[in-house]
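Bug report (template v2)

What were you trying to do?
Predict the complex of my protein with copper (II) ion.

What happened?
Run completed; filing so the output is reviewed.

Input:
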Amino acid sequence: MRQRKKAKRAAAYLAVSAGAALLLSGCGSQYQVLDPAGPVAKTELHLIVMSALLMLIVIIPVLILFFYILYRYRDKPNNTAPYEPNHQDSKVLEIVWWGIPILIVAILGAYTIKTTFILTKPPTNTTPITVEVTSMDWKWLFQYPGSHIATVNYLDVPVGVPIQFVLTSNAPMNSFWVPRLGGQEYTMPGMAMRLWLQASYPGKYYGHGANFTGRGFSHTTFYVYAKPMPQFKQWVQSVKASAKPLTMTEYKKLNVPGIVGNLTFSSYPKNVFYNTVMNDGGKYMSSTMDSMMAIGKKASTSNMSGMPGMSNTSGSSK
Amino acid sequence: MPPSHLSHWGLLITGDPLIYGADASIVLATVAIIFVLTKYKKWGWLWREWLTTVDHKKIGIMYLIAAVLMLFRAGVDAELMRTQLALPNLHVLGPEHYDQIFTTHGTIMLLFMAMPFIFALMNIAVPLQIGARDVAFPFLNAISFWVFFFAAMLLNISFVIGGSPDAGWTSYAPLAGAGFDTGPGENFYLLSLQITGIGSLATGINFLATIFKMRAPGMKLMKMPLFTWSIVATSILIIYAFPALTVVLTLLLIDRIAGAHFFTIAAGGNPMMYINMFWIWGHPEVYILILPAFGVFSEIAATFSRKAVFGYKSMVFSLLLISLISYFVWAHHFFTMGAGAGVNSFFAVASMLVGIPTGVKIFNWLFTMFHGRIRIKMPMLWMLAFIPCFTMGGMTGVMLAAAPADYQYHNSYFLIAHFHQVLIGGTLFGMLAAMYYWWPKMFGFMLNEYWGKWAFWLFNIGFYVCFEPQYILGLMGMQRRMYTYPKGMGWTDLNFISTIGAYIMGIGFLVLVWDIVYSIKYGERDLTGDPWDGRTLEWSLPSPAPHYNFAVIPTITHRDHWWELKQTGRQDELKIHEQDIRPIHMPKNSGKPFLIGLSFFVVGWGFVFEWYILAVLGLLAIFVMMFMRSAEQHPDYHIPVEEVVHTETALGRL
Ligand code: HEM
Ligand SMILES: [Cu+2]
């Protein structure tokens, strides 16, 4: 069923993206949001295009009307256009322009809600892998609980596999954003949040912190390297074999505000991600959340418990 | 870039050329002002006529002057930022300065430029439009102004003493908490907003009371001019939104100076609470900034099309509907904070709903012009620029409201482009339109159209050149608040173009200032009091209006009362007859509002540097002043009939 709808939309989508491509001819991949490299970004682009089109349906007539009225009713001595100084009410017209925006919002709203719910699920049914992301001042630490390796400021992911990012921060709040793979999500101290992304093609994708974190913020760049599964596995093996481990001392050093280049580690201290979340305040979340607003509640408790990344570590923390 | 520890307490000796430059210009400007005032023996005049005034018209003018000065200050910030971003890897500004400058730019533009500009218009126009002699609480009105003024001084001085805040105009905790942001900079932000917030809240209450209680007889609610209606909506928004800001700033201040943990999760607080509370104020705040502009445009569209506003009831209804909805959309500023899909859906759809009444207003303005006769004078020109510009800004607003799409726009230049398009194309264009529109009413002369047009075109062209590329930059993945960016991202060309646009806008602003200076010298006098062939009551008064506004309060029978009288040749109905004149009850001038403002500055200073004795002394001074005010026996007086007769005769109205 999903397939059929997809096919229908694909046509519209194709037309629009062709238009967009023409418009922005040439250097496609620089227009990162418009050039998705994965299903999540694609779904989001779809919504972007759809919302832009719906808006243009209103705006173009408004602009035409505007220039027409401006020209037709300008104050010129010989202007023959009708002049009705008391023309000030029209039920029909009012209904028309309350009606049109309501209709458009209804369509866009429905579509938005649908997309919102879709994106909380993994983009495909393949078995996902998990990457734990910690934003620090001013760098990114990535941990792979599956293979127990860690990287800083870059990460490798397999193509065609949903990646569950579990996000936290060991510094002020940042936001994890890889435009070509999909939209961002905040990284917050004392909380663990989930973001699904997936790469469809091998490639090097730009990522950056999106939420301001102070002096070094402009340097919170990282890159995602998507490669076919065999090569990914090979990479994991070579990291395990040749990189040095991330010790607790080194973890603490890493967390001192500053800027570093790419780093690779063959292992990391046990439960360091979980403990970071807990020590930064995760321990308070479950007890205080009930009295907090619903928004906060969903953000932490449900994610913290419902998440394989989290429950794995919390299981072994005893 | 190896970041070193920079923001700290080096109060005056900073060794930084940018700061010494600012020091020098402050000292020079102060010396120049003192010199001029002394040379022309104007100190007494300044104190009697301005610093102690409780006249809404003069307070309005002071707000206007302050707003234009702040536009200049924050405009300089903008030009510095754009210069830094013109090319990749520039070092015009280091990250420390860039962070401070984007913070003060946003904070000043919103709180110390746009807000006072709106208060200027409220003060100048509302009492005249509703046939009142002053606002409901003139003394409080003066306090509002001085509190704002000294708060603005407090924030502005931070750049040279102690360091400016540098966590963004949103100042999210925990980045803005004591843990990550040492030094007094952030305190300047908290205190100056807190202090000016008191003034804003008082202004909201004051104008709501004024409009509800002080209308001329016969002016039913549905006969009020639309600008006045927009101020009703704005005042309600202020009254219900600002307390959230007051609370959130207070809590963060307590976190910072008393070591509490409201917003640090590590000790059981919750930073998400800060973000929620900030936007519970912040979103209504952006509508506080746009609704008065909507009111202005309704007046101008009708006046310059010589036609009644189309769909008056619909206009009023949509104003109120917008204010109502704007309380239910705040979470669209953080769709990416991990709320569930249900929450995001709710806030997405609620945000889109705002687009409906907004769209309706645009149609109604268009149909106000339809079948009219459009005269393109300066106020109308700004109105005409507003329609396409704001429509596009509204469009991108709705696009941002589509939550999953916002995951890609959020914190990018796409967002920056959106809110500049609505705030400049909406609020600022509206304020400038209003300035040209009511200028003759304030000062008795017109602003020059020739220079006005130059300023207009430069500013408009500059706007599009500066901000349209930023939408594309956002889609290219460029984040907001970066002080520099690398080569090879494809961002260079568009950033360079954007900077050129910013320079063109800067020139446009300078020409605008030149227009004012030129017109002060050569401006055409407005002898009729009704230079635009206006519709509402203020245009029935001479320009500028006498101190007491209306010698005799008129009785209102029509919506566009003055226009109606003119159409039916009955202007004489508003003519004054000597036997109708009674002594006029007016509030006395007072120096206390100024001193209260000054005391707030002292309190603010005390808290910023945690010199609590100073803060307590300041608070004490405020209480003493308030007590003295309460004990005053005669805060008011009567203007005798003879004086009114004399004034009106001199104005040729008797
Ligand atoms: C149709 C009406 C509008 C809608 C649906 C809308 C929607 C939005 C949304 C969803 C955001 C958040 C985007 C994000 O952070 O990712 C936003 C940001 C913003 N909007 Fe609008 N908007 C509208 C009109 C306006 C108006 C009229 C103003 C002010 C005059 C305004 C000022 C702002 C500001 C200042 C921000 C961003 C503040 C910041 O993050 O620094 N918007 N808008
Ligand atoms: Cu908002």
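What did the reviewer find?
Confidence is low (pLDDT under 50) at residues 1-10 of chain B. The radius of gyration of chain B is 25 Å.
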